[in-house]
Write a structure and sequence with these properties.
- The protein is mainly alpha-helical.
- It has one domain (4-127).
- The protein is built from 7 helices and no strands.
- α5 runs antiparallel to α6 (79-99).
- It is globular, with a radius of gyration of 14 Å.
């Protein structure tokens, strides 16, 4: 069973382009002493921004690997991992994409079955 502690390492392994972004985030927030306790939902913010910016710039080479990890996290993660993925990553990416004019459909080609179901469920929920 995958836990929250394994989320970032799996995402970094799937897309090495994330490493410098993560290193900067970690140094700013943890090494500097700004945060003393781990904040998993905050730790997802650079991932969300990365996904949005890469989709916007049509630089999606690592999307298959990243979204495969997201699918794996949903299928093999515990309840806290699912919460982090759905409320953190999926909802965060959707909100950023919609609010900045990209739209949510741009991500559909990379979503696995479970991710797609939850992705569309979020859209339906918020369109209510």
């Amino acid at each position: 069973m995958l836990t929250r502690e394994g989320v970032i390492p799996l995402l970094l392994e799937a897309c090495p382009d994330l490493q410098p972004i993560w290193d900067t985030y970690y140094a700013t927030n943890y090494t500097s002493g700004l945060r003393t306790e781990r904040s998993y939902h905050s730790d997802i913010l650079p991932i969300i921004k990365f996904l949005f910016e890469r989709a916007r710039d049509q630089e999606t080479a690592c999307f298959p690997a990243l979204f495969a990890v997201i699918e794996r996290l949903l299928n093999e993660g515990d309840e806290r991992v699912a919460d982090l993925v759905v409320i953190g990553i999926l909802e965060g990416v959707q909100n950023l994409a919609i609010n900045r004019g990209l739209g949510h459909a741009v991500f559909l080609p990379w979503l696995g079955p479970q991710t797609r179901e939850l992705w569309l469920g979020l859209i339906e929920y918020w369109d209510g």
